[in-house]
Amino acid sequence: MEEAIDQYRDKVKQGRDTRLFNEWKTLDEACSESDEITYAVRKVNASGLPVAYDIIFRIKSIVGVEAANEQGLQKPVFGNEHILQIRLPNNFPAAGGGFPEFKFITDVWHPNVRFFGDFKGRVCLNLKDCGTSVYLAEHVGTVAGYLRYADYHARNEYPYPEDQTVAQWTLEQAEPQGWLHF
Questions:
Q1: Is the pLDDT of residue 176 over 90?
Q2: CA–CA separation, 26 vs 140, rounded Å?
Q3: Band of pLDDT at residue 154, cut at 50, 70 and 90
Q4: Which superfamily, per CATH, for 2-177?
Q5: How wide is the angle at C-alpha 79 spanned by C-alphas 74 and 84, nearest 5°?
Q6: Under 8 Å between Cβ of 158 and 141
Q7: Could you tell me the residue ranges of all domains in the chain?
Q8: Going by C-beta distance under 8 Å and a sequence separation of 6 or more, which residues neighbour residue 113?
Q9: How far is residue 119's CA from residue 53's CA, in Å, rounded to a whole number?
């Protein structure tokens, strides 16, 4: 992928294309340093720069829960490959403009990822708090932490969990049972 990036280095216009190029470059560098994370470009703009990505995580994580057993516990179900789509809006990275959309297209059971409803797969990264200063690669690192359950927010307080049902399971079953240490 580095050759593809190099061919654009001198062609990049100022403004939005510069940021799109830098996002691509830093994401490529971060993924090349990882055995667990790769990516594919899904869509490019008129300049040939990526505006949508598939991020593939090869990390053991919870993808759902079993039906409740006789004690009422729902044990976790694990998966090892997760696909996250990132889409950049047309006005990215304008301040006050649109924020990137982070959405899993595979099941992920995490308080900060919507599991139920119309917005299934949506990832809460509190982008409004970050502004435009954080690069996509940093968010991808945060999502990897989510998958490992190294980072999660399950309490019903700011910044609120994305999925209350998963948050409740996390607090009432997963934490007491030690299921988040895998």
A1: yes
A2: 11
A3: very high
A4: Ubiquitin Conjugating Enzyme (3.10.110.10)
A5: 115
A6: no
A7: 2-177
A8: 104, 121, 122, 123, 124, 146, 162, 163, 166
A9: 19
**In Å, how far are 67, 74, 166, 171 from 70, measured between CA atoms?**
10, 10, 20, 19
* DSSP label at residue 91: T
| pLDDT per residue as tens digits for the range 113-139 | 999 999 999 999 876 655 556 789 999
In the predicted model, what is the mean pLDDT of residues 31-60?
A: 96
Write phi, then psi, for 159 (nearest 5 degrees). -80, 115
Q: Say what the pTM is.
A: 0.90
Longest dimension (CA), the chain: 64
pLDDT classification of 16: cutoffs 50, 70, 90? confident
Predicted pLDDT at 144: 98
Using an 8 Å Cβ cutoff, are 153 and 129 in contact? no
In the structure encoding, which two tokens stand for residue 174, read together?
């997963």
CB 39 within 8 A of CB 50: no
Q: How far apart are CA 63 and CA 8, in angstroms?
A: 38
Instruction: Mention every residue, 6+ apart, whose C-beta is less than 8 A from residue 114.
Output: 120, 121, 122, 123, 124, 162, 163
Q: What is the pLDDT of residue 77?
A: 98
